[in-house]
Every structure is written in structure tokens, then in C-alpha cells.
Amino acid sequence: MDTIIAPGTAATFDVARIRQDFPILSTTVHGKPLTFLDSGASAQKPRAVIEAMTRCLETSYANVHRGAYALSEAATEAYEAARVAVQRFLGAAEPEEIVFTSNSTVAINLVAHSYGRGVLKPGQFVLTSEIEHHANMVPWQMLRDENRGIGLRYVRVNDRGELDLDDLAAKLADGKVGLVAVTHMSNVLGTVTPAAQIARMAHAAGAKVLFDGSQAAVHRHVDVAAIDADFYVFTGHKLYGPTGIGVLYGKRALLDAMPPFLGGGDMIGSVTLERTTYAEAPARFEAGTPPIVEAVGLHAAIDYVTTLGMGAIEAHERALVDHAMAVLPRIEGLTLIGGAQDRGGVFAFSLDGVHPHDLSTYLDRHGIAVRAGRHCAEPLHARFGLEGGTTRASFGLYTTAEEIDLLTVKLTEARKFFA
Amino acid sequence: MNEAASPSGAGDIADLYSRTLRELARDPAHQGRPASFDATARGDNPMCGDRVDIYVSLDGERIREARHVARGCEICQASASLLTALVPGMTRAETTDLGRRAAGIAKTGIGDDSNDGLRRLSVFAVVHKFPSRVKCVTLAWNALDAALAGVKETSSE
Q1: pTM of this prediction?
Q2: Domain carrying residue B47
């Protein structure tokens, strides 16, 4: 009898075969095979995504929601099918809780605008944290600075790069926080935050909670119902899908109570010269022609990762993280930033005597793509005394242990080169 | 295997980090905040965190001395170092012109040996093969221009 391997287990995760699904991974850079370690910024795309988008453009493209002809009906069907795919991917109760935006940044700005300005009351606070990407910090600062009486608090991060939950509790204690907005996984430290626990704490203090899942949704199985998230955002291009599409999940009752964000076509009930009534969610928040082809691409990306299995991807990446944690700290002069117990495949580090930009150029000439700078997280770098920036290697489902080994060899060489 | 689309060239790493450039980056001659100065400005590259402070003392309209405090990559430090060596004796109009020429050399890769200053700035010609690094050359020049214009802060953007 054949051995039966359950789909989505690590045993079936054949990374060499999976890499063949990504055309760009077989290209060279400066004559060297591409070693792509910048998936945290944007992931590469499997052929399934590229082909689904091409097929849509070649065979079933038209504008959605407004044509009573076959092509428009096909496009509408494909667009709404993508919404259902996202609903299932996140474990949301109904597709109407899924709003398509253009990326995570826009999704957070939507909440800052509609929930922040439309639902939060003067005297209330938004509580974010020191480890956020600017996308989950600047919109809240803008809200604070409008003199609406809405304040802003930050949860501290400890030296390991974990959210200080005692500090979170302290900052929730007076009951004045209306919304907690924190990351589900840091794009610099790799820290995965205890989302369910944060949601419980927020709810007990009368606050709603938003998670920035831009990194987490790529690396872990996310279940918004299990976490009890009120809002959850992620972006298509980090999940092996196209740029130009992002997702806001919001609990139906919350979305229903929120005023529109942008005004225009597709988000209305009826319009007269005097007044406009607005559509129900999610249409209320999707003014203008939406990212139709991108929704089809995101759908294909979700199908791709769920066929591999989020559990299998997580197991593969956990093995990579363990490997990186074993080899990177052995490199002389290398300091990893943060060391959270629960972390994903994002490693920011400094290499003694080598500036991140010089290091990044050096690695690029060996085909290795990493990121240098502050990774849209200046306050986090200031917190760790790294105003000059760091170098960051981030993994995707196609990353291999051999690539991490190559990185370690080239890091050691770079240190000699710049000595 | 196909070569992925790459920008203007496959500049070798050793070409970029030439001995001249690396010596400039480490040259302490014009480093450090002076006790007194007539104008200063800070240049920030918000993307990478590089920061150059330029301090100038003036004799009338001409620069008497320029010093820098650079927190940045080797190219950024080398540029600040060469700038502070070259600009004494110049007016703002002259340094603005020289800064434009330095940027031009870095962007085009075309060196200029019409005078000693330009010849020395031609060390940055290789940077055009590394397009993301042109800003590392221009940051110090932007800061000098801001200082002479009486502006306190500028950026690479």
C-alpha cells in the first residue's frame, strides 16, 4: 500500500519543485543566480498568478458591477469570487466583511479615516506600538494632529523585540482607548505578536482591535474569528499576488456603522444634486473602478498558497528560521536585532564596520537581494539605537537553507572586503 | 538562465569601492563639528538613514573652511570628505555649480578633467553603474547648498 501523505504537511513541501513555479527565480543577476531575500518587501509571483491575470485580460476583462453583458458579468463574477476566496482565507463570517483596497496602507488609512474620524469620540485614544511600520503609525499621528481630541499612545517594545504586554495593559487601564492598532508580525524584527491575547485585552478594556497582517498573513494561517480581530489588513503583493490590491477585513457591524472613505462611483445608493445615499459595505468603501485584474491575481495567489497549505509553508519557514538562528549569529561582527521567541523569517542585522548600503551593494553583486535602511520603521530603529539603519534578509516560501548559507558566506567575505 | 533586467550596468564591486574612494571616506582632515561656524545644515536620506551635517565659516561671500559630520555609507562619507576639501575659497554660486557637476558625473559616468577639483570628483563616475547610490554622492552637496541658503534641513529626495 502506498504511503499516504496528507496534503499540506511538511513532507510534501518540495521546495526545489515549488521554485520552478516562480519564473524569476531561474534568472541571474550580474551573472549570478538570483538569491532573493527581500520577500518581506514584496514577494515574487508564481506562474499561476501571472497566467490567471493574463487569462483575465485576454478572455474575460470588462468593468465590473455595471454592465448587463456577458464580459462584464464574467468580470463581476471573478471579482466577487476573489472576495469569497479572501473571506475563506481569513476565516471571515461573510464576504461582505472583505473590502478591497489598493494595499495595506490604504486599508489602514480607510480605518483611520472612517472609524477614526467617524466613530471614535473626543477624549478617546488610539493605541499603537513602537514596532510598527510607518503605515500603521503615520495615519494615527495624522488623526491625532487634527485637533479632534483623539489621542495616541504607544505600547513599548522590550529588548527582545516583543510587545510589552504589561505596558499594553497599563495603557488600556483607564478605558479611554477606543482602538488598538498593532502589527501581527514585525517587518523588521520578525516578531509575531500574540494577536488573540491582545484582542482579549483590548476587548476587556472596551477597545476594538486592528491588526496589520501585511507580514503575518503571508507566513501563518490567519483566522480572524479565532483571534477575534475587529479589523485585519493585508496586501496582495507580499502574498505572491500582484501589487495594487489590498484587503481590509472588518466585522460587519463595524463596517455598517462607518461613514464612507472616498466618494465616487460604485459606493452609492442613489445620487441627486442635493444628496447621496451610500451603498452597504463593502461597496461603500470601494469607490471607483476597483483593481479587477489584481483581484483575480490575488485569488490565484490564495489558491496557490492554500494548495501548498499554510501549515506546510509555516513549517518550511520555521525550519529556515531555526537554520538562520543557528548560522547568522556565528558570523563575526554580526548583531541580530531582536530575538523574539515567536518569530517569522525576517532578520534585520548590523555588521560591524560595514554600512548597510555598502553591504547591500556588495551582496547584490553576488546575486543576493536584501534590503538596507530603516524599512519604513524609523521609531523602531531609534528604539534600538540604530538610526543609521540595518540590513534585512526576509524569507518566502521558496527560500532555501542553501540560500541562507550563501548569505552567511558572503557576509563573512563582505566584512573582510570592507575591513 | 536568463539575466534578469538590470539597470545600466554590471559595475564590479571593486570598481565602486576603489582605494581612492575608501581613503576619502576615512580621511579625517575635515571631519568634526567646529567650535564656531557661520552656517550649517543637515542633509537626511529618509530611505536609508544617512545623515550629513555641513558646517561652513565664511570670509564675506567666500567659504573659508568647511567641515562635516557624516553618518553614512562609504560613498556618502567620501563625498562629504571631498566636498569639504574642495569648497574653501568658493562662493555659493561656485559651489552650487560644482555640486551639479558632481551629481552629473555620478549620474552619467562621464568624468571631467578640466580642473583639479573636477578630476578628483571623477572618482564618483563609477557610481552611475549603481543607480541607487547616486543619492549617496549628492546628499552632502544638498546640505552645503542648504547651509549657504540659510536653510537648516534638506534631504536626498
Answers
A1: 0.91
A2: 19-101+136-155
